Amino acid sequence: MGIPRLPPRLNRAFGVSHDDHLTPRLRFAMNPTMAGLIGWGRDVSLTRQFGILSLVVVGLITTTFCIVISRSLKQDLLDREWSTTADFIRTEAVHNLTPSDFAQPETPEARERFLQFYLRTVVMPEIVRVKIYDAGKRVVWSDEPRLLGEVFADNPELNTALAGHTTVSVEVHKKGENKYEPEGGELVEVYVPIVFGDGPPVGVVETYKQPIRVFANIRRGQMTVVTMAIAGGVALYGCLFWIVRRAARRIASQRRALESHTKELAAANEELRAVQNQLLASERMAAIGEVVAAVAHGIRNPLANIRASAQIALLESGPAGVSSHSGGNLIQIIGEVDRLEGRLRDLLRSVRPTERQTMPFDVNSVVRSALRASASRIDEAGLAVNEMLAPTLPVLMGDPALLEQVFFNLIGNAVEATAKGGAITLTTYTHSDADGVPEVLVEVHDTGLGVPAEEVPKIFDLFYTTKAQGSGLGLAIARKFTESQGGYVSVASGLTGGATFVVALPARERA
Asked: Which residues on adjacent β-strands are paired with residue 167?
């Protein structure tokens, strides 16, 4: 059954939106543009979040990789360099020096061998200075004569070397032994323990190196590592971002397909619910029809007998009896019987299938005919009538008799709802619906109290009425006959009071 639709003209006049009867979820579902924008916003947000997070993670991994590999590469190159230097010095010392040279370094033989050792040592690239210590940490020979005989007991690298381990120090110009070294040079100290046989170290040879080539190789290797790490990180980030973006697009496509299917299911569900409601209404109408037919058959014959008896009694009383009190009662009985007959006729119309004829007709003529049939009731109620009928309307195809009954019922409803001194306004005009199909609209407006919003969905139901003497058939018959013509009827209350009933009929042919 549902809520009757309103034409756009009344939607604007009464401040009613065409979608006001929809739930927020259905209104959202009917707006695919807004849903698509939100879905697109989620996709963009997901891709952006992944892009930022993955960039940070890949950046951290790349940075850590660069630092670890660079340090490892630097340490490996330095260890190889220092190991090569230490092996060379140790070999030269074993071949050119003796343990007695460290025990008695002041002898001419020892000093000569120290000099020869120095000359063979400085042949090695990047060695710029040599110092020789004995086991007591005393300088027994140096290319800097001012250091001879001095003891440097606070040198931790020297202590480690005397324990038998080759050590390296890059902290130049920070110890007492470096007081005669020139400023500004980047030197590396290599402490090499000298061992003869299986005994303890008899001394230590300290060399100063300028590892320009080594550090250049280290920087070149580090640059290679950094470049490769950055290139790998960029490639990894690009692949991950492409995979996630492709997945996000596929998810968005699947979500749009799911939303489309959801809308289709919702529409099918609405259609199914409407069909179900129609079936329930049909079953109810069928049951009511059987009851009404049985009751009407049982009541009509007695009513006909009562009316016939009253007419006979009125005829037998003659002219004098008509004016008497009993004659008035007989006339009242005939009137009430006719009123009951009309109610029975309306009941049968409301439950029986509509028998319609199809012919061309003019809507304005049908409205005026219904207005003439209601003239006595309008005059008795003391109401004014305003006709605002369009001069040129399309010729419609349908059953004018059924539509006259529709307008008669709507006018009668307006008469009952309007107080004395009020007015009824009849308006006709043309309009195109949402699909562009032309329609002819007939409005019946009254100046009564209007229809409460909570009663709008029910006023067209059979037997529903808010009047003490109402039957609940007039509006139900009006809707049934209108729908049988392919149209619809709706109602709205105005902002300043009163109610407007609108009958919309499809215009299949133009005048």
From this structure: 191
Backbone angles phi, psi at 384, to 5 degrees: -100, 155
Which band of pLDDT confidence, cut at 50, 70 and 90, is reported for residue 36? very low
Secondary structure (H, E, C), 209-260? ECCHHHHHHHHHHHHHHHHHHHHHHHHHHHHHHHHHHHHHHHHHHHHHHHHH
Q: Would you state the pLDDT for residue 4?
A: 44
Could you give the count of Cα atoms lying within 13 Å of 336 in the half-sphere of its Cβ?
8
Note the pLDDT tens digit of each residue in 324-356: 667 677 777 877 777 676 666 665 555 555 556
CA distance 385 to 41: 57
Closest among 471, 156, 488, 159 to 339, alpha carbons compared:
471
Alpha-carbon gap, residue 189 to 168, rounded angstroms: 6
Listing DSSP states for 337-389 in one string gives HHHHHHHHHHHHHHHSPP----EEE-HHHHHHHHHHHTHHHHHHHT-EEEEE-
- Other Cβ atoms less than 10 A from the Cβ of 471: the count is 15
CA-CA-CA-CA dihedral for 378, 380, 383, 387, to nearest 10: 30
Alpha carbon 179 to its chain's center:
74
Tokens encoding 284 = 């109810």
Give the residue from 468, 462, 466 showing the smallest Cα distance to 454: 466
The answer on pLDDT for 33 being more than 50 is no
Closest-CA residue to 442 (of 510, 490, 485, 495): 490
Question: What is the DSSP annotation of 405-456?
Answer: HHHHHHHHHHHHHS-TT-EEEEEEEEEE-TTS-EEEEEEEEE-S----GGGT
Separation between Cα atoms, residue 345 and residue 351, nearest integer Å = 10
Query: What is the DSSP code string of 42-55?
Result: HHHHHHHHHHHHHH
- Residues 6+ away with beta carbon under 8 Å from 358: 397, 398, 399
d(CA 9, CA 16): 10
Under a CB-based contact definition with an 8 Å cutoff, are residues 164 and 200 in contact? Answer: yes
CA distance 99 to 93: 10
Contact present, 363 and 428 (Cβ < 8 Å): yes
**């010392």: which residue's tokens?**
93
Q: Do 233 and 59 contact (CB within 8 A), yes or no?
A: yes
- The conformation of residue 197, written as its DSSP 8-state character, comes to T
